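Data availability excerpt. The first of two example chains:
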Amino acid sequence: MSKEKLIIFDTTLRDGEQSPGAAMTGEEKLRIAKALEVMKVDIIEAGFPASSQGDFEAVQGIARVIKTSTVCALARANDSDIKRAGEALKEAVSSRIHTFIATSPLHMREKLQMEPEDVIKQAVKAVKLAKTFTDDVEFSPEDAGRSELDFLCRIIEATIDAGATTINIPDTVGYNLPEQYGNTIKQLIARIPNSSKAVFSTHCHDDLGLAVANSLAGVINGARQVECSVNGLGERAGNAALEEVVMAVRTRQDLLPCDVDLDATQIMNCSRLVSRITGFAVQPNKAIVGVNAFAHESGIHQDGVLKARETYEIMRAEDVGLSSNRLVLGKLSGRSAFKNRLEALNISIESEQELNKAFRQFKDLADKKSEIFDEDIQSLLSDIKVDDGLEDMFKLVSIRACSETGETPAAKVTLAINHVEQTQASDGGGLVDATFKAIEAMVKSDANLQLYSVSNVTEGTDSLGEVTVRLEKGGRIVNGLGADTDIVKASAKAYVNALNRLMSPSDRVHPQAYKGV
């Protein structure tokens, strides 16, 4: 007997972008949306059109391009937000408007300053207006995890009558425990007379580390949509991680009453893409997508896995897109082999110029490394794709760094600033510190360095090093990314990349104006 379908609703581009420093350009959002479509995600929440002109254009651009996934836009329960969402989704093949209003006593009293009856009226009005733009309307009672059950029943019954086809139950502040959250879903479905006319959904935050557990508890108790994000990206501690939800459902078919249609072999590609674009590194021991997720250090474990994989592995690395395939190419290798590997990795190249640039960088790397792994190629492409379409004010021309025992580290950096080369030398506490000081002496950004993070892309001393730099100025936070086998050069690339983002027009980056749901 076939199982019911569990709908995967991805909110990486909306709720995920609410992480400080994770804001993306429209082009970056589109790249992630395309990857989510390849992964066969059912619903892509593309953004919050009313929050900014940039976010409106990003949602509109995604709606024009995505064909097989439903494109969703978030809107508060007011006329202007919903009309803006409807306009942004106008060209979508399949669209959804997701509208919400707070329902907990605390939120209604302190934030909305509205009476409960007025909140119900506002929600019904919003759903009816959204129905004039699309047949697919989702309603969320914000902070449902701390709302009164009787009131939830009333407002959900009213919004279903008004035309809502999906009812999402957000644990907005990650307050619930799994048994509590699951029981809320169960009680709502049982007590609301018209509950069968809508799909019930989960949206859980990870403040107590329970987002995935709560989501699965909701599924066990009748929810048939899970709202989640790649790598668990999201505001504060994040959202339920898409990869964990999907693989838990796939792995525990003995207990879960539904299944997903998602192509799990694309999980790793999406994870790496989101990590590189946002600058949020994935912790090594992160479930499913961490570099150690399928690694075995213990001799007993290694012996067991060699004899029978199932002794210590409950899923295969290949199931999420990991493989031992490596691309070994050198100076004499052709562009066709390189292009074929890009296609196998689902990396799209938009132009011949872009392919030429990527191939040149590949050859440069091949001079430094004897073996090129898939991860190396994905990292190389991030240097090209992440900056695509941005007007770069600064470009790294050259760097010379010197460190000697007993001597103060020093660096000499040459930048092209608006196409005019400048050179500056500086010393520092280390080579990276000296490099950043030399760059700042020329740029004079006065930005605060909030994060400096280094990770290796593959194994070995010749591995590409990826550096993430987070800068803040005037309340605006941006991430920069750089990759190179020379970690000092990678650091300089990351710092310059962050500076270009910081100096770009503010509407090129889309921080969410509202933190909710």
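And the second chain:
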Amino acid sequence: MNTAVLLIAAVVGAGVAAAVLWLFGRRVRSVAQAVKSEAERDARRILAVAEQEAEQRLKDAAIMAREKLLEARSEFERETHDYRQELLTLERQLVQQSSEVAERLKEVERREAAVEALRQQLEERETAIALQEDAIAAALAEQRIELERIAGMTSEQAKQELMRAMENEARMDAARTIRRIEEEANQEANLRAKKVIAAAIQRVAAEHVVESTVSVVDLPNDEMKGRIIGREGRNIRALETATGVDLIVDYTPGAVLLSSFDPVKREVARLALERLMLDGRIHPGRIEEVVAKVQGELDEKIFRDGEAAAIELGFPDIHPELLKLLGRLQYRTSYGQNVLAHSKEVAWLAGHLAAELGVNARVAKRAALLHDIGKAVDREMEGTHLDIGRELLRKYGESEEVIHAMECHHGDVDPRSIEAVLVTAADALSAARPGARREILESYLKRLEKLEAIANEFKGVQKAFAIQAGRELRIIVESERISDEDAVWLSRDVAKRIEGELTYPGQIKVTVIRETRAVEYAK
């Protein structure tokens, strides 16, 4: 009985266990199916999000590509526009030059036609003259034979004697005539020239500051000198590197020297050093900061100085780049003469001279103001200051009248206008007046020696003296070998030699002195 009960209980337990296991397996399968479904939904959602992000990124990339394409297209259009404008400008210049060439060609053709007509006339005259010469030659041959028979002298001997007499007489007459004409012309010309020049100079009063290649900076005390040097000289090296100027610290008490051939750099270094001493913080970083700041302020001051000079002369329309270069001339000197002050003085002189003579005063003043503009950058560009100035004026739109008057001020180009002559004269007046310029002693002595050497090379010269700081050359000649008429020719020949061989401001007066002494003793 018990065994049957246990058996039944075991069977029932096994059935219950089987039922539980079946229910648990079904539950597990249901849970697994749910997890699988959830995973599939998550995968589809993630895939959809990824697809949306990919599409958005593709859209963003396309937008960025279109923006870059538009920027590149705009840049290309700007560059193309600039190139197109340059090409149009070159095309207009080419058309203008072509028209000028065509006009010149027509003028040449007209001149050739006139020359051809003149040549035909000359040929006809030559034919007529040849016939006359043949007739005259025959008559002269007969007369020569008769004269030789009468005079007992050959024709060649008579010809030489006659030519010698005529040459001496012609030279004496020419010398007397030249001396008379020169005296009359000099009296009238000197009177008129003095009036015009005096009227021009009377209105101009300019001061000139003599500068050199060295600037002195005063120190408040000797302790500041050590701070300027810095540890192992690092402050000096930083200042020299930042400014390009040599800083000289020697045993001179209370001062340091700034040395440079560039006056603008020297001025930047001076202002920066004074500002550093005033501030008290002197180290390489501060030095670079102060130098950069001073450089910007000085550039602004240079522009204001150039603008002020242009406005003072009545030319506010000058190109801004030319105004900057004009302001740089404030820090440039020539033989100790401040170039900006010299340019303004030349402009006033040229304007007054032009007004006195009734020519274009504005062209003369403008060309005179800009005549030394090339000196502002002649240490940075190749070529003479005349060539550089010509290129700068053409680049910034100055007229050909102004450019021509500017390029003639040293005599390298022959003047084609009165304004060009007046600019040259005003430049010489400003440079030659006493105290305006300081010459180097060595070159000054060489010029005096060269003047005397040129005079001593002529025959009949006894002594030659260069006086009045080389403005006058006095020549004493031997009265036995040089006559009064020969003295006139000698002065002209010496003056021509000086003009051809020497370079000098203003003019040099050549005076020939001939003295005749008669000595007799009473016994």
